[in-house]
Amino acid sequence: YTVSIDQSPILVANVNAVSFTFAGAEVGAPYNYSFTSSGGAGTVASSGVIATATDQITGIDLTGLPDGTVTLSVTLTDVNGNVGAAATDTETKDAAAPAGYTVAWDDTQINATEASATTITVSSAEVGTTINYSVSSSGDGNTATVTGTQAVATASQQVIIDVSSLTDGTLTVTVSLTDGGGNTGADATANSATLD
């Protein structure tokens, strides 16, 4: 018999509903499974009885396991109490969204000349993530926005933004970071800049 984890990778969107599927399992045999992570201590384990040779075991919550390479290990026991060799599978768990970053305007008084290439700095950014930004102005009730993305190459990442299309007023920038697993962190904002 073999087993395979159904989610690839395991992300924040599915970490509390992981499943795995048997192939060639003996119907009626009790099974025991465990999930562990290379990222640290902890085990998620349970047991049951095989109903079909291709049983899918669902609803497994791996939230408590650290991010890393997750290993699934499963054994079957026959009617005589003989425990078979463990069937295993591995998958990457990346369910922690970027956190702890801040954003600030580099220039708090932005004139018409500077508006086409003003800058913000995202601090404590996770290298390898993507910055998602949105800028609006109080001049039109924060209706119009300038949006964009930029890859993070350094923990203190500067982003050049063209705000010349926005109405004069107080500018608010909202930033979030998205990692390679598609996990997006909480919004960070700064509204200390004036476009005039």
Summarize the structure.
It is built from no helices and 16 strands. The model has no long low-confidence stretch (mean pLDDT 96). With 196 residues, it is mostly beta strands.
Give the arrangement of secondary structure elements.
Layout: E1 2-5, E2 10-11, E3 18-23, E4 30-37, E5 40-49, E6 56-60, E7 68-76, E8 87-94, E9 102-105, E10 109-110, E11 118-123, E12 130-137, E13 145-151, E14 157-161, E15 169-178, E16 188-195
Description:
The chain is mainly beta and 196 residues long. The chain is 0% helix and 52% strand. It contains no helices and 16 strands. It has strands spanning 2-5, 10-11, 18-23, 30-37, 40-49, 56-60, 68-76, 87-94, 102-105, 109-110, 118-123, 130-137, 145-151, 157-161, 169-178, 188-195. The protein has a 5-stranded mixed β-sheet, with no helix packed on it. Strand 4 (30-37) and strand 5 form a beta hairpin. The termini are far apart. The mean pLDDT is 96.
